Amino acid sequence: MNNNFVLAIHGGAGTILKSKMTPEKENAYKQVLENALTTGYGILEKGGASLDAVEAAVILLENSELFNAGKGSVFTAEGTHEMEASIMCGKTLNAGAVAGVKKIKNPVILSRKVLEQQDYVYLAGEGAHLFARESGVECVDEDYFYSEQRYEQWQAVKNSSKVMLDHSDDRKFGTVGAVALDLHGNLAAATSTGGLTNKKYGRVGDSSVIGAGVYANNDTCAISCTGYGEFFLRGVVAYDISCLMEYKGLSLQAAAEKVIMEKQVSLGGEGGVIGVDKTGNHCLVFNSEGMYRGVVGAGNQVPAVSIYRN
Fold this sequence. Notes:
Elements: E1 6-14, H1 23-45, H2 50-62, E2 83-89, E3 95-101, H3 107-116, E4 122-124, H4 125-135, H5 148-157, E5 172-173, E6 175-181, E7 187-193, E8 214-216, E9 221-227, H6 229-235, H7 237-248, H8 252-267, E10 271-277, E11 282-286, E12 290-297, E13 300-308
Pfam families: Asparaginase_2 (PF01112)
Organism: Fulvivirga kasyanovii
Protein name: Isoaspartyl peptidase/L-asparaginase
Protein backbone atom coordinates (compact mmCIF):
# COMPACT_ATOMS: atom_id res chain seq x y z
CA MET A 1 0.00 0.00 0.00
CA ASN A 2 1.35 3.42 -0.91
CA ASN A 3 1.01 6.51 1.26
CA ASN A 4 -0.12 8.84 -1.47
CA PHE A 5 -3.59 9.41 -2.83
CA VAL A 6 -5.08 12.17 -4.92
CA LEU A 7 -8.36 13.22 -6.52
CA ALA A 8 -8.79 15.78 -9.29
CA ILE A 9 -12.06 16.94 -10.83
CA HIS A 10 -13.29 19.22 -13.59
CA GLY A 11 -16.60 20.84 -14.46
CA GLY A 12 -15.91 21.88 -18.04
CA ALA A 13 -13.53 24.20 -19.91
CA GLY A 14 -13.87 27.06 -22.36
CA THR A 15 -14.16 30.83 -22.49
CA ILE A 16 -14.84 31.33 -18.81
CA LEU A 17 -14.10 34.96 -17.98
CA LYS A 18 -14.11 36.59 -14.56
CA SER A 19 -15.65 39.69 -16.15
CA LYS A 20 -18.77 37.67 -16.98
CA MET A 21 -19.05 35.98 -13.59
CA THR A 22 -20.86 37.41 -10.60
CA PRO A 23 -19.26 36.81 -7.18
CA GLU A 24 -22.35 34.84 -6.17
CA LYS A 25 -22.15 32.52 -9.17
CA GLU A 26 -18.41 32.08 -8.81
CA ASN A 27 -18.88 31.07 -5.18
CA ALA A 28 -21.66 28.67 -6.16
CA TYR A 29 -19.40 26.91 -8.68
CA LYS A 30 -16.54 26.69 -6.21
CA GLN A 31 -18.79 25.33 -3.47
CA VAL A 32 -20.00 22.44 -5.63
CA LEU A 33 -16.44 21.67 -6.74
CA GLU A 34 -15.26 21.68 -3.13
CA ASN A 35 -18.13 19.42 -2.08
CA ALA A 36 -17.27 16.93 -4.83
CA LEU A 37 -13.61 16.93 -3.80
CA THR A 38 -14.44 16.51 -0.12
CA THR A 39 -16.77 13.60 -0.87
CA GLY A 40 -14.21 11.76 -2.98
CA TYR A 41 -11.38 12.57 -0.58
CA GLY A 42 -13.34 11.06 2.30
CA ILE A 43 -13.50 7.75 0.44
CA LEU A 44 -9.79 7.73 -0.45
CA GLU A 45 -8.67 8.79 3.03
CA LYS A 46 -10.36 5.76 4.55
CA GLY A 47 -8.63 3.41 2.12
CA GLY A 48 -11.54 3.24 -0.30
CA ALA A 49 -11.22 2.46 -3.99
CA SER A 50 -10.40 5.10 -6.59
CA LEU A 51 -13.32 3.79 -8.64
CA ASP A 52 -15.72 4.62 -5.80
CA ALA A 53 -14.14 8.03 -5.29
CA VAL A 54 -14.45 9.18 -8.91
CA GLU A 55 -18.03 7.89 -9.12
CA ALA A 56 -19.01 9.71 -5.93
CA ALA A 57 -17.37 12.96 -7.05
CA VAL A 58 -19.09 12.88 -10.45
CA ILE A 59 -22.47 12.14 -8.84
CA LEU A 60 -22.13 15.38 -6.83
CA LEU A 61 -21.41 17.31 -10.04
CA GLU A 62 -24.26 15.59 -11.91
CA ASN A 63 -26.64 16.61 -9.12
CA SER A 64 -25.91 20.32 -9.64
CA GLU A 65 -27.68 22.24 -12.40
CA LEU A 66 -24.59 24.47 -12.73
CA PHE A 67 -22.83 21.85 -14.86
CA ASN A 68 -23.88 20.29 -18.16
CA ALA A 69 -24.26 16.72 -16.89
CA GLY A 70 -27.08 14.98 -15.08
CA LYS A 71 -29.50 17.56 -13.67
CA GLY A 72 -27.87 20.46 -15.57
CA SER A 73 -27.92 18.78 -18.99
CA VAL A 74 -28.77 20.92 -22.00
CA PHE A 75 -31.78 20.52 -24.34
CA THR A 76 -31.60 18.54 -27.57
CA ALA A 77 -33.31 19.64 -30.80
CA GLU A 78 -36.35 17.59 -29.69
CA GLY A 79 -36.52 19.36 -26.34
CA THR A 80 -35.27 16.36 -24.37
CA HIS A 81 -32.02 15.58 -22.60
CA GLU A 82 -29.62 12.94 -23.93
CA MET A 83 -26.70 12.16 -21.68
CA GLU A 84 -23.54 10.08 -21.83
CA ALA A 85 -21.01 8.91 -19.27
CA SER A 86 -18.10 6.56 -18.77
CA ILE A 87 -15.91 5.12 -16.05
CA MET A 88 -12.72 3.04 -16.14
CA CYS A 89 -10.65 1.02 -13.67
CA GLY A 90 -6.89 1.30 -14.08
CA LYS A 91 -6.17 -1.99 -12.29
CA THR A 92 -8.29 -4.25 -14.49
CA LEU A 93 -8.83 -2.02 -17.56
CA ASN A 94 -12.52 -2.79 -17.14
CA ALA A 95 -14.71 0.05 -18.37
CA GLY A 96 -18.36 0.96 -18.65
CA ALA A 97 -19.99 3.56 -20.87
CA VAL A 98 -23.48 4.73 -21.85
CA ALA A 99 -24.73 7.15 -24.50
CA GLY A 100 -28.04 8.56 -25.66
CA VAL A 101 -29.67 7.93 -22.29
CA LYS A 102 -32.71 9.88 -21.07
CA LYS A 103 -34.33 10.22 -17.65
CA ILE A 104 -31.34 8.61 -15.91
CA LYS A 105 -30.69 10.73 -12.82
CA ASN A 106 -26.99 9.86 -12.63
CA PRO A 107 -25.53 8.47 -15.87
CA VAL A 108 -22.21 7.77 -14.16
CA ILE A 109 -23.97 5.25 -11.89
CA LEU A 110 -25.31 3.48 -14.96
CA SER A 111 -21.86 3.39 -16.55
CA ARG A 112 -20.50 1.84 -13.34
CA LYS A 113 -23.20 -0.87 -13.56
CA VAL A 114 -22.05 -1.61 -17.11
CA LEU A 115 -18.44 -1.88 -15.92
CA GLU A 116 -19.41 -4.37 -13.23
CA GLN A 117 -20.78 -6.94 -15.64
CA GLN A 118 -18.53 -8.80 -18.06
CA ASP A 119 -20.50 -8.94 -21.29
CA TYR A 120 -20.45 -5.30 -22.40
CA VAL A 121 -18.44 -2.10 -22.27
CA TYR A 122 -20.71 0.37 -24.08
CA LEU A 123 -24.52 0.56 -24.15
CA ALA A 124 -26.63 3.15 -25.94
CA GLY A 125 -30.24 4.27 -26.32
CA GLU A 126 -33.11 1.93 -25.54
CA GLY A 127 -30.82 -0.96 -24.69
CA ALA A 128 -29.10 1.16 -22.08
CA HIS A 129 -32.50 2.12 -20.64
CA LEU A 130 -33.54 -1.54 -20.42
CA PHE A 131 -30.28 -2.37 -18.67
CA ALA A 132 -30.86 0.56 -16.29
CA ARG A 133 -34.28 -0.78 -15.31
CA GLU A 134 -32.95 -4.28 -14.80
CA SER A 135 -30.07 -2.90 -12.71
CA GLY A 136 -32.26 -0.73 -10.51
CA VAL A 137 -30.66 2.55 -11.59
CA GLU A 138 -32.79 5.54 -10.59
CA CYS A 139 -34.87 7.15 -13.33
CA VAL A 140 -36.60 10.54 -13.01
CA ASP A 141 -39.23 12.52 -14.92
CA GLU A 142 -38.03 14.66 -17.80
CA ASP A 143 -38.83 17.86 -15.91
CA TYR A 144 -36.11 17.01 -13.36
CA PHE A 145 -33.61 18.27 -15.94
CA TYR A 146 -35.42 21.53 -16.64
CA SER A 147 -33.74 24.84 -15.81
CA GLU A 148 -34.64 28.29 -17.07
CA GLN A 149 -31.08 28.97 -18.21
CA ARG A 150 -30.86 25.80 -20.29
CA TYR A 151 -34.33 26.40 -21.76
CA GLU A 152 -33.41 29.92 -22.85
CA GLN A 153 -30.21 28.63 -24.47
CA TRP A 154 -32.26 26.14 -26.45
CA GLN A 155 -34.87 28.72 -27.47
CA ALA A 156 -32.11 30.89 -28.97
CA VAL A 157 -31.24 28.22 -31.55
CA LYS A 158 -34.33 25.98 -31.49
CA ASN A 159 -35.53 26.56 -35.07
CA SER A 160 -32.11 26.53 -36.70
CA SER A 161 -29.63 23.85 -37.66
CA LYS A 162 -27.12 25.34 -35.24
CA VAL A 163 -25.81 23.48 -32.24
CA MET A 164 -24.51 25.38 -29.26
CA LEU A 165 -22.12 24.84 -26.44
CA ASP A 166 -23.75 24.86 -23.05
CA HIS A 167 -23.49 28.63 -22.58
CA SER A 168 -24.88 30.97 -25.22
CA ASP A 169 -22.71 33.95 -24.26
CA ASP A 170 -19.40 32.13 -24.06
CA ARG A 171 -17.72 29.00 -25.37
CA LYS A 172 -17.97 26.50 -22.55
CA PHE A 173 -17.64 22.79 -23.08
CA GLY A 174 -19.99 21.28 -20.58
CA THR A 175 -18.57 18.10 -19.13
CA VAL A 176 -17.74 16.89 -15.65
CA GLY A 177 -15.12 14.37 -14.65
CA ALA A 178 -12.87 12.95 -11.96
CA VAL A 179 -9.61 11.03 -11.72
CA ALA A 180 -8.08 9.41 -8.66
CA LEU A 181 -5.22 7.36 -7.24
CA ASP A 182 -6.08 5.39 -4.09
CA LEU A 183 -3.95 4.11 -1.23
CA HIS A 184 -3.73 0.71 -2.93
CA GLY A 185 -2.05 2.25 -5.99
CA ASN A 186 -5.08 1.89 -8.24
CA LEU A 187 -6.15 4.55 -10.72
CA ALA A 188 -9.64 5.34 -12.00
CA ALA A 189 -11.36 7.94 -14.17
CA ALA A 190 -14.94 8.98 -14.94
CA THR A 191 -16.57 11.51 -17.29
CA SER A 192 -20.19 12.64 -17.80
CA THR A 193 -21.95 15.17 -20.04
CA GLY A 194 -25.25 16.40 -21.42
CA GLY A 195 -23.72 17.16 -24.83
CA LEU A 196 -24.53 20.14 -27.05
CA THR A 197 -27.61 22.36 -27.00
CA ASN A 198 -29.93 21.60 -29.97
CA LYS A 199 -27.95 18.49 -30.95
CA LYS A 200 -29.58 16.14 -33.47
CA TYR A 201 -29.26 12.64 -34.92
CA GLY A 202 -28.24 11.02 -31.64
CA ARG A 203 -24.93 12.88 -31.67
CA VAL A 204 -22.37 11.42 -29.27
CA GLY A 205 -19.22 13.22 -28.15
CA ASP A 206 -15.99 12.00 -26.62
CA SER A 207 -17.12 11.82 -22.99
CA SER A 208 -18.46 8.27 -23.13
CA VAL A 209 -15.84 6.92 -25.54
CA ILE A 210 -13.12 4.92 -23.81
CA GLY A 211 -9.73 6.27 -24.88
CA ALA A 212 -11.11 9.56 -26.15
CA GLY A 213 -12.84 11.21 -23.20
CA VAL A 214 -11.72 8.87 -20.43
CA TYR A 215 -8.92 6.38 -19.77
CA ALA A 216 -7.23 4.73 -16.79
CA ASN A 217 -4.28 2.35 -16.63
CA ASN A 218 -2.29 1.58 -13.48
CA ASP A 219 0.91 1.51 -15.53
CA THR A 220 0.54 5.13 -16.59
CA CYS A 221 -2.31 7.47 -15.64
CA ALA A 222 -6.00 8.25 -15.32
CA ILE A 223 -7.44 10.94 -17.60
CA SER A 224 -10.79 12.74 -17.94
CA CYS A 225 -11.36 15.19 -20.79
CA THR A 226 -13.49 18.24 -21.44
CA GLY A 227 -13.60 19.98 -24.79
CA TYR A 228 -15.11 20.04 -28.23
CA GLY A 229 -15.94 16.35 -28.50
CA GLU A 230 -15.41 15.91 -32.24
CA PHE A 231 -11.78 17.00 -31.93
CA PHE A 232 -11.13 14.92 -28.84
CA LEU A 233 -12.57 11.90 -30.63
CA ARG A 234 -10.27 12.46 -33.62
CA GLY A 235 -7.28 12.88 -31.32
CA VAL A 236 -8.09 9.90 -29.06
CA VAL A 237 -6.92 12.32 -26.40
CA ALA A 238 -7.11 10.34 -23.16
CA TYR A 239 -5.32 7.28 -24.57
CA ASP A 240 -2.83 9.43 -26.45
CA ILE A 241 -1.60 10.90 -23.17
CA SER A 242 -1.22 7.41 -21.70
CA CYS A 243 0.65 6.24 -24.82
CA LEU A 244 3.11 9.11 -24.67
CA MET A 245 3.88 8.12 -21.10
CA GLU A 246 4.11 4.39 -21.79
CA TYR A 247 6.03 4.38 -25.06
CA LYS A 248 7.89 7.71 -25.06
CA GLY A 249 8.59 7.96 -21.34
CA LEU A 250 7.04 11.39 -20.98
CA SER A 251 5.83 12.63 -17.61
CA LEU A 252 2.09 13.12 -17.10
CA GLN A 253 2.44 16.90 -17.33
CA ALA A 254 4.59 16.77 -20.45
CA ALA A 255 2.30 14.27 -22.17
CA ALA A 256 -0.82 16.29 -21.37
CA GLU A 257 0.77 19.51 -22.59
CA LYS A 258 1.93 17.81 -25.81
CA VAL A 259 -1.60 16.60 -26.57
CA ILE A 260 -3.64 19.61 -25.41
CA MET A 261 -1.33 22.53 -26.13
CA GLU A 262 0.14 21.21 -29.40
CA LYS A 263 -1.76 18.37 -31.05
CA GLN A 264 -5.28 19.58 -30.21
CA VAL A 265 -4.41 23.18 -31.09
CA SER A 266 -3.12 22.08 -34.50
CA LEU A 267 -6.38 20.18 -35.09
CA GLY A 268 -8.47 23.16 -33.99
CA GLY A 269 -9.60 21.54 -30.74
CA GLU A 270 -10.29 23.52 -27.59
CA GLY A 271 -10.60 22.21 -24.05
CA GLY A 272 -8.57 20.48 -21.40
CA VAL A 273 -7.81 17.41 -19.32
CA ILE A 274 -7.30 16.43 -15.72
CA GLY A 275 -4.98 13.57 -14.91
CA VAL A 276 -3.16 11.70 -12.16
CA ASP A 277 -0.31 9.23 -12.60
CA LYS A 278 0.65 6.08 -10.76
CA THR A 279 2.88 7.95 -8.30
CA GLY A 280 0.32 10.64 -7.44
CA ASN A 281 1.43 13.47 -9.69
CA HIS A 282 -1.53 15.37 -11.11
CA CYS A 283 -2.12 17.71 -14.03
CA LEU A 284 -4.80 20.26 -14.91
CA VAL A 285 -4.02 21.29 -18.49
CA PHE A 286 -6.24 23.36 -20.80
CA ASN A 287 -5.84 25.55 -23.89
CA SER A 288 -9.03 27.55 -23.28
CA GLU A 289 -9.57 30.69 -21.20
CA GLY A 290 -10.63 28.69 -18.17
CA MET A 291 -11.58 25.32 -16.72
CA TYR A 292 -13.65 24.58 -13.61
CA ARG A 293 -11.19 22.38 -11.74
CA GLY A 294 -9.95 21.23 -8.37
CA VAL A 295 -7.56 18.83 -6.65
CA VAL A 296 -7.08 17.35 -3.21
CA GLY A 297 -4.61 14.78 -1.93
CA ALA A 298 -2.52 13.45 0.92
CA GLY A 299 -0.02 16.27 0.42
CA ASN A 300 -2.76 18.88 0.74
CA GLN A 301 -5.90 17.91 2.62
CA VAL A 302 -7.68 21.17 1.78
CA PRO A 303 -9.48 21.15 -1.59
CA ALA A 304 -7.94 23.64 -4.03
CA VAL A 305 -10.36 24.84 -6.70
CA SER A 306 -9.85 27.24 -9.61
CA ILE A 307 -11.82 28.56 -12.56
CA TYR A 308 -9.75 31.01 -14.60
CA ARG A 309 -6.43 30.64 -16.34
CA ASN A 310 -4.48 32.64 -13.80
